[in-house]
Amino acid sequence: MRTIEVRPSRNPLWQKQLGWEVHEGDGVCPVFCGTHGREDALDYGRQRAGYAPTEIHVLDHDWKVVETISPQNVRGLV
Predict the structure, then answer these.
(1) Domain boundaries, the chain
(2) What is the mean pLDDT of residues 46-65?
(3) Is the alpha carbon torsion for 35, 30, 75, 49 positive or negative?
(4) What is the pTM of this model?
(5) What is the mean pLDDT of residues 42-49?
């Protein structure tokens, strides 16, 4: 099973823009910025999770898991 992490960016440039990262693996980490950055990052993570059994971990600013979205709670591709 894959794991996708949705987490606040630690990069100072993205932090200034309220950036959230969607970390799928090395080299795959899009950033979503702005007041809706977290929701946009979660939407992207859910979309990517529709391709294979995937668990999504939502992290806080200390990068500790605060929420886990299991595969059965992820809406698949339509």
Answers:
(1) 2-73
(2) 92
(3) negative
(4) 0.85
(5) 92
Q: Which of 56, 52, 50 is nearest to 68 (CA)?
A: 56
Bridge partners (DSSP) listed for residue 7: 21
Alpha carbon distance 61, 59 (integer Å): 7
Dist. CA 49–CA 27, nearest whole Å: 17
pLDDT for 47 beyond 50: yes
> Please, what sign has the CA dihedral across residues 2, 45, 67, 9?
positive
Residue 43 near residue 26 (C-beta atoms within 8 A): no
Handedness of CA 43, 55, 9, 27 (dihedral sign): negative
Structure-token pair, residue 19: 């950036």
